[in-house]
Amino acid sequence: MASPLCLRGGRIIDAARGIDRVQDLWIAGGRIAGLGEDAPAEVRSHPRPEVIPVAGAVICPGLVDMHVHLREPGQEDRETIETGTFAAARGGFTTVACMPNTVPPLDERSRIEYVIRGAREAGHARVLPVAAVTRGQLGEALTEIEELAEAGAVAFSDDGKPVHNAEVMRRALELTRGLGVPVIQHAEDRDLKGDGVMHEGWASTRLGLKGIPAAAESVVVARDALLAELTGGHVHVAHVSAARSVEIIRRAKSRGIRMTAETAPHYLVLTDEAVEGYDSRTKMNPPLRGTKDREALIEGVVDGTIDCLATDHAPHTEIDKDNDFESAPFGIVGLETALGVYLKALVEPKHLSLSELLLRLTVNPLRVLGRPGGTLEAGTEADVTVFDPARRWTVRASEFASKGRNTPFDGWELRGRVLLTVLAGRITFRSEAFEPSVR
Amino acid sequence: MPPKASVEQVREKAEILDGDGLRRAVTRIAHEIIERNGGAQDLVLVGIRRRGVPLALRLAKKIKEFEGIDPPVGALDITLYRDDLQTIAHQPVVSGTDVPCRIDDKIVVLVDDVLFTGRTVRAALDELIDLGRPKAIQLAVIVDRGHREIPIRADFVGKNVPTSRREVIMVNVEEIDGHDGVSIGEML
Amino acid sequence: MIGQRKDLLGLEDLMAEEIVSILDTARTFRDVLDRPIPKVPSLRGLTAANLFFEASTRTRLSFELAEKRLSADTVHFQTTGSSVSKGETLKDTARNIEAMGIHLVVIRHTAPGAPHYLARNLDAGVINAGDGTHEHPTQGLLDIYTMRERRGRIAGLRVAIIGDVTHSRVARSNIWGLTKLGASVTIAGPPTMIPAEVERFGVAVAKSVDEAIEGADVVNILRIQLERQRTILYPSLREYARVYGITSERLKRAKPDVTVMHPGPMNRGVEIAQDVADGEHSVILEQVTNGIAVRMAVLYLLAGHKAPGETAAETPAMEAKPTHGEPSLPPRR
Fold first, then answer.
1. Which of A132, A350, A396, B16 is the most buried (most CB within 10 A)?
2. Of B85, B114, B117, the CB nearest to C42
3. pTM here?
4. Do A206 and C112 meet the contact criterion of CB atoms below 8 Å apart?
């Protein structure tokens, strides 16, 4: 038997099973062997286990980000499966769902397989491809949903753009209903958005930038809630940014409609005021909104209206992004800062306990996608993240593994440093900030 | 280039003209101007801001006393004609040039308190020439302290005071400084 | 420089005293413009680059004249954003300017914040000559200068701004400058052209043009450009002229000696009636002349900023003149 791995003395938080205690975690043969005394004797009595002391750190199931842009195939200057998944590992993520707005889009079986193969070769993280709802993401003809699901697509989305046509959305929901996979909606009314570049409000008025009203998102959320009710299909609302959207989703859930939602870190810590100075690193879609929206999102995360915490990791090249605000593309990277920003937004102000936060970063997104995992149960594949929730560090975009350096958090001091990321029992990332391991 | 002096940096060493002395100098220069120009016809007095302006007004008053002719008085702000705008840290405040009549074919007497490097007068000449084409330009100063950097000389001088470059000549006029007099100081 | 500034990007950034100091300096330059030789050597040896990424005749000419009357050397670059991507041009432009040793950059661009981008990336001083729908600070200054000359003050003035405020950089710069100097500003225009939370500028929003004009000292009329905007914002120019056009009949609600302004170019018969444009209250041509003086003042004040490679000398070359009191101005005769 190969040497088992023992993470010694950490605080194990397995939120889905209600576990939060200091114990050793044993990993053998790529799977969780058990917690403390529960691990089989032959594992614990192995003559040469690899022991990593992690006292003071948190051991939890590997983090899951259900909204990432890996940009491959076609935009390898922005990100590749290799760099994007390594960035995921550095951020503590063992699983990411990647969006289909590549060039060409993930609307064909061959391209879903390409992504899965690429991720396996890179070996940094599990990649769950999201396939396009419509061919070419053009919003008209549906993709071959069953075949794509069979090839490994875990959800369907035209992300980057909304499914604009309500009839198309209805039929996609009907066709995915039986597969148990969601349609992920980039909720945005394209006419209300127009050529807007930031949230419509006092900041856009002052800066003279074309605004995108919060209603551009919420009208589509409302429509989709009605379509989910009509069809019985599952709508997952991507990157929720507006207070009204939270209200609509809450109401839909209370009526038993199959609607789930995610948000992204920046919406919880920044508002449209951050656009001051025309820094294109504050430009993303949906845009940073007002203070009331930010507060409503936190409330929605706390009460479970917003199920998952994602990143909407959207890398761009410096040439594209370092530009005047209007010309710069939408999107910021998030994988390597998400944990710290979420701790800052939700745990430090005591909106959520650590355990509640981790639920939304592990098991919840997997459940939305109808996937198993997200726990440290013995016998499951050992996807594990170890982080020190107290350790302070300064964000240095220039040191990111991601090709994208476009983050408004560059230079921020955050608490919560990822020390170790384990994928199926294998270490995919080990922080240089880590104490040397003892054998 | 002489170091910039500010009030705090200068120690007064000696008074070289008291109030009466300064007034006598003005009176004498007024006589000389009339004598040189055979009267006060066609005269325009133009003071260089700031202390040249009250001095020009006083000269005009004296000339009126002696000749019965009230020569027009103007004020020149040479800021826009300085040759050192690119080397100073802040743009100086511009207070404006105010010459109340045409100067074409007039005898312009330029008035300033101290003649030193000559660069202020150079700038004033440039500006005057942009304003018109006088018959002649003459220069009147209360103190000539030497150290010329360009070939300029005064036509009327109240007092010649040989100085070192470290020293500062302070001409005080009641209208600006609250009292009349000329003193010599040293930069600390 | 203006305060410690290297750039003039918008009136939002300026303090009231800074605005007043620009206006006061402009007055000196206004006098220079009336001289037989309307030119001073202040900026001799400096080079100003006029970069126009958006078509403009008036503003470009006004800046060019201002630069020439200050004896600066000038270079021009004009493009209307054809085949080259906007962004690349801007970034390359910044690098080129750096290499060419240019001291002052005047930029007009369709993108709000484009001058801010250049200012961040350049040591040269940057003057915003209009950035999309954001600000047009020198237009704001010349409007305020003209109002002050006409009305004798700004504090307490009642100024009505009529038209498409959402898409107007002139409106934003006017509003910032006027409110900082204590004027009371009322705006009126189609509800589709009044931006979100506009009252936070400290302006009143009138329900109608008549209400806005009532008792006004100044009516500043914005140019309407329906052709460039989506016609969904307003049905037609004809309808606009009927509801928002300033006619001499409407103007009767204002003070009898009301001052009528327009940043130009005018759509006669649309936002402004012919007889108002050419009428006794109109100061529209005066605005144009004042614009040169105001731009001279801005260029002059910003030229104090050090360009790369230069160091601020500790000593001025002129005679040291210790002062003990306030300057006394000669009486006018």
1. A132
2. B85
3. 0.88
4. no
As for how many domains chain B has, the answer is 1
| Domain region containing B60 | 21-165
Please state the ipTM of this predicted complex. 0.88
Inter-chain touch C113–A206, beta carbons under 8 Å: no
What domains are there in chain A, each with its CATH number?
5-59+379-395+411-430 (2.30.40.10), 62-368 (3.20.20.140)
B117–C319 C-beta distance less than 8 A:
yes
List of chains touching C (3+ CB pairs within 8 A): A, B
Contact C312 B91 (CB under 8 A): no
Tokens linked to C321: 């003149």
Whole-angstrom distance, CA of residue A39 vs CA of residue A53: 17
Print the SS3 string covering chain C.
CCCCCCCECCHHHCCHHHHHHHHHHHHHHHHHHCCCCCCCCCCCCCEEEEEECCCCCHHHHHHHHHHHHCCCEEEEEECCCCCCCHHHHHHHHHHHHHHHCCCEEEEEECCCCHHHHHHHHCCCEEEEEEECCCCCHHHHHHHHHHHHHHHCCCCCCEEEEECCCCCCHHHHHHHHHHHHCCCEEEEECCHHHCCCCHHHHCCEECCCHHHHHCCCCEEEECCCCCCCCCHHHCCCHHHHHHHHCECHHHHCCCCCCCEEECCCCCCECCCECHHHHCCCCECHHHHHHHHHHHHHHHHHHHCCCCCCCCCCCCCCCCCCCCCCCCCCCCCCC
